Fold:
Amino acid sequence: MGIRETGMEYLVLMAVANDGKTWYPSKLQPRYDFACPDPLEAVLSAADECGMKFFVSNDFWDKWSNTTKMMKDHEIAKLREQGMEEVAGKYSHHKSFYGWYYPNESGLNNSIDDLTLNYVNNCTKIAKRLTPKSVNLIAPYGTKSMRPNDQYIRQLEKLDIDIIAYQDEIGVRKTKAGSAGKYFEILHNAHSKAGRSKIWADMEVFEFEQGVYTSALIPANFDRVLQQMEDISPFVEKILIYQYLGIMNKPGSLASVGHPNSGKLYIDYH
Structure:
């Protein structure tokens, strides 16, 4: 409910499994040992009550860091399809089950490579068979390196995905606050030419406590977050954030998770 009270509408579930175990009761892999017997059922039921929409992950059926392996390995592809069938059978009746999120974050180095193209299109083929009305999402990194030229537009035309939420890469210090808008403007024009896939943003509301990728994530200052929103919002339909959990938290919540300043960012945003 605390998330909904901010006005946020969409939730993205990062994973239904990882490293050989699932986050829900499954016949495919053993479940992580939680006090809650079915965490996925719990969060989707809560989202039903709050009127929120979930993009449900279709991975990670191996270690989350083995991105290329999970996108190429045929045995993992079979397991992923079985997992999607199982998840759809158990949970797609929820009104909050809005669509699927393909969490293997392929880097877009200048363009969309064939590995990403095939992975995404195969996932969408399965998603549409299981949940024909689903709206499906990817959130690639590499936004600054993109070259949305004719080649990119041709690849975008082939990519069967409803929404691409490009990472603004402020938190990982690849881009500075106030400068990402120019990249999103170019991508917006490319999407308009391709006539395929809505363009959203995956906005980073964190910063690193010390070194990039080697230290903890902490909440960014709200002035920076506001600058990010103002910079990219003219060129995207929606803005998602990475991440709410641990970075924003309603003060007084029964289960407070994250950095002590997460309550301040919640208040400043709200």
User: Anything to note?
Assistant: The longest strand covers residues 198-204.
